Amino acid sequence: MIRVLVCADDTDTIDSDWGTGELVSLISDTMEERGWGKSFGVTRHQLLIHPDIPYTSHNSSMCFAADLNEEDLDALTSYAAEFLARESAPGSDPGLCIAVAERVKNTELLIAFGRKAKDTVVTKREACSLAQLLGVHLSEHGGTGQGVIGALAGVGLRLSGNDGRMKGKLKLKSIDGIATVESILAQANIDLVKSSEGFLLANNELVRLGNTVKPVLQDGKYVLLVAPVDAGDSGGSTWQTLTKQQLKGY
Amino acid sequence: MNVIAEYIIEIDGIKYFTGNSSAGKDLNATVMLAEACRFYREDVEEELYLEDVVTCYNCRFRRWAHSGFSCYKGFPVS
Lengths: 250, 78
Known about the structure:
The complex is a heterodimer.
Chain A: E1 2-9, H1 20-33, E2 37-46, E3 60-68, H2 73-87, E4 95-100, H3 107-119, H4 124-134, E5 137-140, H5 147-160, E6 165-166, E7 178-180, H6 181-187, E8 192-195, E9 206-208, E10 216-218, E11 221-228, E12 239-241, H7 244-247
Helix pairs in contact in A: 3-4, 3-5, 4-5
Chain B: H1 3-7, E1 8-11, E2 14-17, H2 24-35, E3 62-64, E4 69-71
Antiparallel strand pairs in B: 1-2, 2-4, 3-4
């Protein structure tokens, strides 16, 4: 098995009924259905908001990591490229990046590019040159192909293990909205439950589950972030999951 | 409250909401705008900003700016 990272950007327009995350999820699902590999979930990565960047509405890219049968890499690459070319919205500028983690010639450069794209305007030429240098698949599938910038950046950020939040919301079993840390870890692809200040919760601690149960990536792990519960919680929990607004910075 | 006059500014032909989502009054203004807007459409889940509320912050036509956001429909309420 090889570890791959698959990321797309700029596949939709303002009139689309779906977002890039939906297309990336479908690629991930198909990969699993065809027995090519196992996905570790789709994450969203925020890039720079700047007048010189032609983003649609939020400038984020969507990425998944997977363990893939080495012999299925070409099939996944062909499928993802054809899928994006076919399904991306007319008028969009889709880009696709697929990196094999252990074959990236300089991981630090790729991660640095991802971080740079969060606070600097980077060019398509810069992205293409770096992808070639690092031995990473980077392809454009319509329009200006500007999406290659976010696609490469998303792979770098996912590879860093310290950026992004999971696509979708987890639905966990609880009693009156409260679950132990042990139960949370047993039910979902979550490695740790921590406070936003970095305090690691013990297995027996109680967490009130809000409407959005959504882990973030920290140190390569899926971490469910919590905050001290509002005073007077009747269920006895001392922690509650972060709201969408609190998660915006991740 | 005249939300348009109080919160919307126009720069180079683009209208921006200038409020702060952390301020209750400003957030209420975006709720008023969204509830009165015939174009309001909830964004995809991963781009929602607030939970279970109809607000410009959650709208598909909201475009984040360095500070605040603009509206692809130009805040079409009076």
